User: Which sequence fits this backbone?
């Protein structure tokens, strides 16, 4: 049975073959004629139909015979020798055939037709009446389950499962449609506001119908015991086996198992499984969330329209309000509330002179701003200037920088005790020491081996001495951190 389910479907080869446009045209004609209850076609009829298409202008009868032979090999059509129209022995030897389309091909053409109608978007719908129909069919099945008439039980169960399948497929397709990217783009357009109420009301009616009928359905499902359904499944299987069929019949246990699987799916959809909510609750949450999404989209569109709408009436109202005021101070206060500070000053500062990220604002010199006249006729006086050499200033700045770094390195060297800096043993330190230690700790923790190199090229390693917390005191505050030490390896 497993090998049969996984075998290749040769009947579908015509959809992707090299000459698929020819094969599909032939089988589409078979399908259209089958729907008109004309099951047998002659090659001359097929050829006359194809020649109406300009793409088949150079198509020959020999090519048609080759294509019909290939479709016969793929089991898309069944050739039957025509004997009623034979007049001579030579005609009989020519083996004139008429062809019938196989059931596999008919179903595949129906599927292709539905796919073409579907396009690139999901279909589906949220029909609350389907729950009422499912409830009515389930009641009928519960009444017929105890009878001995297998035909009535079979029909009642087919109605139940048919309505259940339509509910699941239509609801899932419609939810997927509402969540598709194309629909969300349309919801962001202002034209969506005209459909917002209809969308929300449609989904709201579905939720009310779902809640009203689902309780009765769940109650009825609980009343039908597994033993009662097993007896009904056996009668359904017996009825299915009583239908005369020339092909191979399914086994009775297999038919019973199929019905029980359907019953299990129906119960799990309404009641869920251990550890998982039911699909009914999921559907209810999805539809409720969809209404929220529609409302949010509509709210955003409304806010967007409100932001760009004309302020003509608002300005007239404010002008009349200003006109009623008796003193200028009150007018200034109203202006400050409506339009911001009446005489706002824009503060400008030049870029910082120091590139040190740890420098404080009071450590830098003040910025001098030259206020220029705000008149259109003002022009700055330009005069030629000579290139001034800054070599001495650069050398002095470099020497000052080297001296500062040497002092900082001397401070750090004073803290090293036996190739190690134990932070807990340090007294009060200047902020520079704290920033340097934190910089080293951060680099070490980012390394898998907890090792790194300092600015001078020395290799260090971060180690933890104990689980307690220690405090590093500085003039501008205290830092609490784990009991760490910096060990110099080279």
Assistant:
């Amino acid at each position: 049975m497993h090998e049969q389910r996984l075998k290749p479907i040769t009947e579908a080869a015509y959809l992707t073959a090299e000459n698929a446009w020819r094969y599909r045209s032939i089988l589409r004609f078979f399908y259209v004629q089958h729907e008109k209850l004309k099951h047998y076609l002659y090659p001359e009829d097929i050829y006359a139909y194809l020649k109406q298409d300009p793409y088949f202008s150079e198509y020959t009868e020999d090519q048609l015979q080759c294509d019909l032979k290939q479709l016969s090999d793929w089991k898309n059509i069944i050739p039957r020798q025509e004997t009623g129209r034979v007049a001579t022995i030579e005609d009989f030897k020519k083996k004139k055939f008429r062809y019938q389309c196989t059931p596999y091909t008919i179903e595949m053409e129906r599927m292709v037709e539905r796919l073409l109608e579907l396009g690139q978007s999901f279909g589906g719908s949220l029909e609350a009446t389907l729950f009422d129909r499912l409830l009515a069919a389930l009641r009928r099945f519960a009444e017929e389950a105890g009878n001995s008439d297998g035909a009535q039980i079979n029909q009642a169960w087919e109605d139940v499962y048919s309505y259940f399948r339509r509910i699941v497929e239509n609801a899932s397709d419609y939810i997927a449609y509402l969540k598709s990217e194309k629909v969300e783009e349309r919801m962001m357009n202002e034209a969506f506001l005209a459909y917002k109420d209809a969308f929300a009301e449609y989904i709201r009616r579905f939720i009310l119908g779902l809640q009203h009928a689902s309780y009765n359905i769940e109650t009825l499902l609980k009343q039908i015991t597994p033993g009662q359904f097993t007896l009904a499944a056996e009668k359904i299987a017996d009825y299915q086996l009583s239908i005369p069929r020339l092909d191979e019949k399914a086994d009775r246990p297999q038919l019973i198992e199929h019905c029980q699987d359907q019953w299990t799916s129906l119960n799990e959809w309404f009641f869920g499984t251990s550890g998982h909510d039911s699909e009914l609750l999921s559907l209810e949450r999805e539809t409720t969330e969809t209404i929220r999404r529609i409302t949010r989209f509509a709210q955003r569109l409304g806010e967007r329209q409100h932001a760009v709408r004309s302020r003509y009436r608002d300005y007239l109202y404010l002008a009349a309000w200003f006109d009623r005021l008796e003193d200028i101070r009150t007018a200034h206060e109203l202006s400050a509330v409506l339009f911001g500070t009446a005489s706002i000053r824009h503060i400008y500062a030049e870029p910082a002179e120091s590139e040190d990220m740890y420098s404080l604002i009071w450590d830098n010199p003040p910025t001098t701003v030259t206020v220029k006249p705000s008149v259109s006729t003002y022009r700055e006086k330009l005069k030629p200037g000579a290139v001034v050499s800054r070599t001495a200033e650069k050398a002095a700045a470099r020497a000052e920088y080297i001296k500062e770094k040497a002092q900082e390195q001397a401070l750090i060297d004073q803290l090293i005790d036996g190739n190690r800096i134990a932070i807990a043993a340090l007294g009060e330190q200047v902020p520079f020491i704290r920033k340097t230690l934190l910089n080293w700790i951060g680099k070490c923790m980012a390394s898998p081996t907890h090792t790194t190199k300092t600015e001078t090229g020395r290799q260090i390693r971060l180690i933890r001495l104990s689980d307690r917390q220690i405090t590093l005191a500085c003039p501008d505050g205290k830092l609490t951190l784990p009991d760490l030490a910096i060990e110099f390896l080279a």
Summary: The longest strand covers residues 459-474.
